[in-house]
Design brief:
Blueprint (H helix, E strand, L loop, with lengths): L5 E7 L3 H13 L4 E6 L6 H11 L3 E5 L8 H4 L2 H15 L5 E4 L4 E5 L6 H6 L6 E9 L12 E15 L3 E4 L6 E4 L2 E3 L25 E5 L5 H6 L26 E5 L2 H18 L2 H21 L8 H7 L5 H12 L10 H12 L3 H14 L4 H12 L3
Parallel strand pairs: 1-2, 1-4, 2-3, 6-10, 6-11
Antiparallel strand pairs: 4-7, 5-11, 6-7, 7-12, 8-9
Protein name: Glycosyltransferase family 2 protein
InterPro entries: Nucleotide-diphossugar_trans (IPR029044)
Organism: Neptunicella marina
Length: 391
């Protein structure tokens, strides 16, 4: 392919269910090479990448567990280490003219689905960096789906950035590097102006839809979202991530990014042929089963979560389907940790919070409070109210 050579560098953990779709997407749009560094992974990501590599040798899966031989402080900066090394290698070995750091849930997407990444770069030939805005895509009901033709989500101040390998990078960042000097633009050539508060963010006056956007597929579907809440390490005392705001919960202005209809049809047809050419269905089914099993494992952990974190669980499960909500209700009712709380005042305060989520779950906590304060008039009154309302 003529024009600038563009390479994607990605770091992945347990992303086997999505790698094939993500790789096809970016090859279709003109990216010349893709390196996926796989680290701390227990699924079949490397097997899938190996299969892709047999037909598309410019797509490589690289084991990055070597980072874990470093001291803990270095391990905590795994992505920075890999990004810096990969960028230096691309420059030293003349592997690419531009590099883009992406996660597997991030899709570089032109509205036309016809504009290549090379065309984007040729539109901005004197730029050292070209930043592309983010849309946090809302999830869909069905799991393991390709990008929809009509992408609904919220625009985000963060960006992802094409970096010219000859640019003078002072520090690599996840979203936009710090340059010693150079010109930084957006995909349509407008100068990049940084956000006054958000590091690596775009100034709020510049945040709007452009011809190319990064689609951030953080939610995908309720099942996949809950599956990703699993920390995945037996050594973790708390086995569920509680630093999420809820399903489809994100800040920013709501937008719709409509992909060209004819371009989308051609894109889906190419995706189907890509998967067929790989004869990879059994590996994909295995990877999807991994995600589903992790989902059920996450739900099985819920009754064991320390009772103090129940409000956090309610926040994290906000927006999920009735299936996930009902699982959380049953987990609270069968909590293994609530009986360990012998302070009725703490139980009462917790019950008041839980009541806004589900009265049946709250009822079980009020009953627990009654055990420790059997003559409590407020507790008895509340339980009587529940009984009257057939809770």
């Amino acid at each position: 392919m003529s024009g600038p050579r563009v390479k994607i560098i990605a770091v992945a953990k347990d992303e086997g269910a999505y790698i094939t779709d993500w790789v096809q997407h970016h090859l279709y749009l003109g990216f010349n090479a893709i390196d996926v560094y796989v680290n701390r992974t227990t699924d079949n990501s490397l097997d899938i990448l190996k299969r892709i590599n047999t037909i598309y040798p410019h797509v490589r899966g690289l084991n990055a567990d070597w980072v874990d031989t470093c001291p803990q402080d270095a391990q905590n900066n795994l992505q920075y280490i890999i990004y810096a090394k990969a960028f230096a290698d691309a420059k030293t070995n003349d592997e690419a003219d531009y590099v883009l750091f992406l996660d597997i849930d991030e899709y570089w997407t032109p509205k036309s689905l016809a504009k290549s990444v090379q065309e984007c770069i040729l539109d901005n030939p004197d730029a050292d960096t070209i930043s592309i805005e983010w849309i946090n895509e809302f999830g869909q009901d069905l799991s393991f789906q390709p990008l929809p033709q009509s992408i609904k989500g919220r625009i985000n101040p963060l960006v992802k950035t094409l970096i010219k390998v000859t640019s003078e990078v002072e520090k690599h960042r996840f979203h936009k590097p710090e340059l010693k000097q150079g010109k930084s633009v957006l995909v349509d050539g407008e100068l990049f102006v940084k956000h006054h508060q958000i590091h690596e963010g775009l100034h709020e006056k510049l945040q709007h839809l452009r011809p190319v956007m990064i689609i951030h597929r953080a939610f995908r579907s309720p099942m996949e979202y809950v599956s990703l809440l699993n920390r995945g390490r037996p050594s973790d005392e708390l086995k569920i991530k509680l630093n999420r705001g809820g399903y489809n919960e994100c800040s920013g202005r709501e937008v719709i990014f409509e992909l060209n209809v004819k371009g989308y049809e051609s894109y889906l047809d190419a995706k189907k042929k890509f998967v067929e050419s790989l004869e990879i269905n059994s590996l994909l089914q295995e990877a999807q089963s991994f995600v589903k099993n992790r989902y059920y494992l996450t739900l099985s952990y819920l009754p064991s979560v320390p009772w103090q974190y129940i409000p956090d669980l309610i926040k994290v499960f906000k927006g999920c389907s009735d299936t996930e909500k009902n699982s959380l209700v049953e987990a609270i009712k069968s909590s293994k940790t609530l009986p360990k709380c012998n302070n009725p005042d703490q139980l009462i305060e917790l019950a008041k919070i839980v009541e806004k989520f589900d009265v049946h779950a709250a009822n079980s906590i009020w009953k627990q409070a009654l055990i420790h304060r059997p003559k409590g008039p407020k507790i008895k009154q509340k339980l009587k109210e529940y009984e009257t309302n057939h809770v």
